[in-house]
Amino acid sequence: MVQQKVIGLIGGMSWESSAEYYRIVNETVRARLGGLRSARCLMWSFDFGEIEALQHAGRWDEATAELVSAARRLERGGADFVVICTNTMHRMADDVQAAIGLPLLHIADPTAERIRAAGLSRVGLIGTAFTMEQDFYKGRLASRHGLDVLVPAAADRAEVHRVIYEELVQGRALPASRKAYQAVIARLVERGAEAIILGCTEIMLLVRPEDSPVPLFDTTALHAEAAVDRALAGL
Q1: Residue 197: its pLDDT value, please?
Q2: What residue range is the signal peptide (predicted)?
């Protein structure tokens, strides 16, 4: 009997969104295979307080070493491929991939593929300041997938980032913050965004389709579903 591939999940950044990964992966496997079927997966879950401190101190080399260690643990545990359950930490995706003998499923790729399949090319990106301002994410969207990526203005970027770290990663989704995100999205649409990428895995806890006049592409769901695609390939 051919078995599912084992999904190696690097989670805990934050655990709120990692729980969504686990839910989506298992619900998708059950929907596709039926009955009592669920995903074959492993998860290494970080203490996010430690990772967040490294992020905001700019100690990216140390953060990279932590992710490499997690990926190697999953490899030793029997994972067939690795999924980093956060957008921001894809800053070190290439380093993680180079350090292990397993494929790494990059979060930007299934997102971009779905956007291109919808016939769209100009997108707004909201996420942490690291994701919006550094090139590791929007650069991949542009160079590998031909997308024109817009990010919010500085004040909007600051508010989007604040809400993620002060509220969403702590499990809080406040009505005032939802309104603030609606306004940020509206301004991106005014600048020509044909769609919005929810480029932080916690944003789906706050923003819903009715909050945007253009399609939303939720990286959490798209990444988790792509992991299932890979796990079930060949069955």
Answers
A1: 98
A2: none
pLDDT at residue 1, as a whole number: 64
**Which of 89, 86, 110 lies closest to 16, judged by CA?**
86
| Residue 1: inside a domain | no
CA trace torsion 143, 103, 114, 189 (10° rounding):
-50
H or E element in which residue 50 lies: helix 48-56
Q: Residue 92 sits in a domain of what CATH number?
A: 3.40.50.1860
Cβ(63)–Cβ(51) below 8 Å: yes
CB 86 within 8 A of CB 55: no
Q: Do residue 98 and residue 29 come from a single domain?
A: yes
End-to-end C-alpha distance for the chain, whole angstroms: 9
pTM of the predicted protein model: 0.94
Reduced 3-state DSSP string for 133-151: HCHHHHHHHHHHHCCEEEC
User: Which is catalytic among the residues 200, 201, 219, 220?
Assistant: 200
* Residue 220 known to be catalytic: no
Catalytic annotation on 200? yes
Query: 91 with 130, same domain?
Result: no
Q: In the chain, which residues have pLDDT < 70?
A: 1-2
Q: Is the same domain home to 115 and 91? A: no
Q: Are residues 38 and 139 in the same domain?
A: no
Q: Look up residue 147 and give its two tokens.
A: 């997308």
Same-domain status, 62 and 150: no
pLDDT in tens, 162-195: 999 999 999 999 999 999 999 999 999 999 999 9
